[in-house]
Amino acid sequence: MLSVFIACVTCLIPTYFWIVPESPRWLILQKRKTEALRILSKISKSNKKPMNFVEEIESLQNSAISLYRTTDEKLEFLELIKFFLKKRLYVFRTFILVVNW
């Protein structure tokens, strides 16, 4: 009976894509300010607090742009695997997870 319940809950996970809104910060980085404003207005209504959207959009845009500029180095997939293999503890934990699964 428990497995049926877990299977039903697992089947509901894809519906979260339609329920949970996208991040306003990500929308601003994608130059979709109107959608970000819509989500921020929903947030302010649910919190029952008025919000200055212009200042919020500017602060989100500035923080997102500064974060985007600081992550200039991009790791390739093979570099990530090499780093992972250097750490024996990660390899050991992954092995234990695979065996237990």
Query: What's the average pLDDT?
Result: 77
Largest sheet: none
Helix content: over 70%
Q: What is the SS-derived class?
A: mainly alpha
Intertermini distance: 21 Å
Number of helices: 7
Shape: flat
DSSP E strands, number:
0
SSE order: HHHHHHH
Could you tell me the radius of gyration in angstroms? Answer: 21 Å
Stretches where pLDDT is under 50 for at least 5 consecutive residues are none
Description of the molecule:
The protein is an all-alpha fold and 101 residues long. Helices cover 76% and strands 0% of the residues. The chain has seven helices and no strands. It is flat and about 50 Å long.
Task: Give the gist of this structure.
About 75% of the residues lie in helices and about 0% in strands. It is mostly helical and about 100 residues long.
